[in-house]
Design goal:
Layout: H1 3-25, H2 28-53, H3 57-62, H4 65-76, H5 86-97, H6 103-117, H7 119-127, H8 129-134, H9 141-160, H10 162-171, H11 177-186, H12 191-216
Helix pairs in contact: 2-4, 2-7, 4-5, 4-6, 5-6, 5-12, 6-12, 7-11, 9-10, 9-11, 10-11, 10-12
């Protein structure tokens, strides 16, 4: 065996063992937080890639059913990052394609895409919980105070009416859901309960959009 090759193999195995030992030594909550932060970063990155590549609504429309899921996932996974045109494109596809494709399936895929993408807000709450508790973020100015008040209101609703709050904010288009999703992650709401409430709300919205599209066009 080549000496250099053998030495390289030993170093590689040692490095792998050290990383594995480091991960095994982390407490379970820290591992969950790390995993959810990776989900957050991956979700936002995936959502921004089509924008950078110039993918249009027509491109997604040409994909049919997969395009409905992808468009609604991309338009929702950007968290607080505004993406002009992309956020509305997914829901617009539900309306337009419900007239030419199977409306229930279009609605289901659109709602599923939106619900799956909301994991970014949940991941942000779980992953950033420790950081915010050690160094609270204070927003300044009128906008900052308004955002803080809205966040506190949503926090109170989440503490007393977690699942109903998530359901209503998921079903009705509004900019406040991100606060609820982050709070759900921060208070460690079970993931299955979060997904159940959010998926139900998104499905209601998607089926209403599909009904409108199938009735008007």
């Amino acid at each position: 065996m080549d000496a250099r090759g053998g030495e390289k193999g030993v170093v590689t195995r040692a490095a792998g063992a050290s990383w594995w030992g480091w991960l095994r030594g982390m407490p379970t909550p820290a591992l969950v937080g790390l995993g959810l932060v990776l989900v957050l970063v991956l979700g936002v990155t995936v959502a921004l890639v089509p924008v950078l590549l110039g993918v249009s609504e027509e491109d997604l429309k040409a994909l049919g059913y997969p395009g409905v899921f992808i468009a609604n996932f991309l338009g929702t996974a950007t968290l607080f990052v505004p993406v002009p045109g992309l956020s509305a494109a997914g829901q617009a596809l539900i309306v337009t394609l419900a007239d030419t494709l199977d409306p229930p399936l279009v609605a289901f895929l659109g709602g599923l895409g939106m619900a799956t993408a909301e994991l970014t807000a949940y991941a942000a709450g779980r992953g950033l919980r420790e950081i915010s508790s050690q160094r609270p973020v204070k927003l300044r100015g009128r906008l900052g105070r308004a955002v803080t008040k809205a966040a506190r209101l949503i926090d109170q609703l989440m503490v007393h009416y977690g699942v109903p709050t998530l359901f209503v904010l998921s079903a009705v288009p509004n900019p406040l859901f991100e606060f609820a999703g982050i709070t759900a992650g921060a208070v460690r709401m079970p993931l299955w309960r979060f997904l159940m409430a959010v998926t139900a709300g998104k499905m209601v919205r998607a089926f209403l959009l599909a009904y409108v599209g199938n009735s008007l066009f």
